[in-house]
Amino acid sequence: MLKLTLCVLLVLGATAINVQSSIWTNRDQKALAQIHTSGWGKFILNYAELHMQTGGILSELNSEIEKLVGELEEELAGVHHEFNRRTDVHNREVARLEQEIQDKERELFNAHDFYDNVLIPQRDRFAAQLEQLQENIAHNRQTLEQATVQRENDHETFEAQVAEHNDAISAIDECLQLLSTIATPSLAQIQKVQKNLNKIQNSLKKHNQFQIFVKVLLEITVESNFADQGALRDIIVAFNNLRVELVDSLNQITADEAEAVADFNAQVIQLNQEHAEFQRAVVVKNAEIDANANKIEQTLDLIDELDADLATLNGQLQAENDDYAFATDVYNATVAEYNKEINAANQALELLNQPRFQDYVKSQLKGA
Questions:
Q1: 3, 93, 279, 311: which sits with the fewest CB atoms below 10 Å from its CB?
Q2: 302 to each of 59, 310, 317, how far by Cα in Å?
Q3: Residue closest to 280 by CA, chosen among 148, 288, 127, 267
């Protein structure tokens, strides 16, 4: 049936059933008008009319038309099959894309979370720790500098005290030497002793604990003429006591200085050790800061990559949905057209098997 030549179709196209003929009922006319809206329905009626006009047998016509309807239904089944296959492909593709989108969104969320809640706080914490280390180093060096300046000052004070003590001891020794050689001292000798006492007083004026000794000796030497041997012995004893006190004091400040030097040296060692530890900590912290900066850069690159991947996947999903929507529209229109043609063919087949159709064809032949 479908293999009719183009010339037959041209002939049929020139043949038209008169739907206004009095042989048709109103119902028949409505059916004919509806059939004529279908290309296949109109083709069947025209072909049936031509077939019968040329002496064809109705049963042969029915068989050919049934084959036509069968072929249309087979083609429609193929349309359904192809659309179902397309639907299966669409569903699998959508499921795949939605799963990949969900995975990318999870990766993107995790990347943002890692950036916001781990890397940035870590960066700020590392920066604060580095700043603290730098402050510790500055404080360490400042402490060392202050301790060094203080040690220098204390040592200068110590040297001055040693010099004062030595001057006083030398003056006492000179007095003792002088007093041990005189029996009846002259005025010049007495004045020399008093001069040495003034020298001792000046040397020890910063040391209050010695001032009373010096004051007593000055008073004795002023009031005594050294003629009294008992007074002379008292003066010598006083000088010896003062010398012992000065030697003890010199030994004490010397011991204090040695202890202060040892404490300073220990402090220097400790401060330098702390400084070395701080320096090593700075190196480690800078390495951590660099690693953190690299991780931040990598994470931002990953976020950009995930954003691009997500945009691509969403675009693919939208394109697939759009393509499937278009395929669905085409499928629905195709199915509607096939159903229209099949229904029209069945109506035409039902109509041409009615006696009125045969009567119509005969009337057309008589009129010819």
A1: 3
A2: 75, 12, 22
A3: 288
Which pair of structure tokens corresponds to residue 29? Answer: 């006319």
Q: Which two tokens mark 30?
A: 């409505």
- Amino acid occupying residue 67: K
Instruction: Write down the pLDDT at residue 84.
Output: 97
Ordered mean pLDDT values, 10 residues apiece, the chain (368 residues): 32 39 52 56 57 55 78 92 97 97 97 97 97 97 97 95 85 75 62 68 59 60 59 78 89 96 97 97 97 97 97 97 97 92 76 62 49
Question: How many C-beta atoms lie closer than 10 Å to residue 67's C-beta?
Answer: 12
For residue 33, what are its two tokens? Answer: 């008008």
- Within 13 Å and on the Cβ side, how many CA atoms surround 163? 7
Contact in structure between 31 and 351 (CB atoms under 8 Å): yes
Show the DSSP H helices in the chain as ranges: 6-14, 26-36, 39-53, 58-114, 120-181, 187-203, 208-223, 229-352, 355-367
Query: CA-CA distance, 8 to 345, in Å (whole number)?
Result: 18
For residue 137 the two structure tokens come to: 């180093």
C-alpha torsion 281→286→292→298, nearest 10 = -150
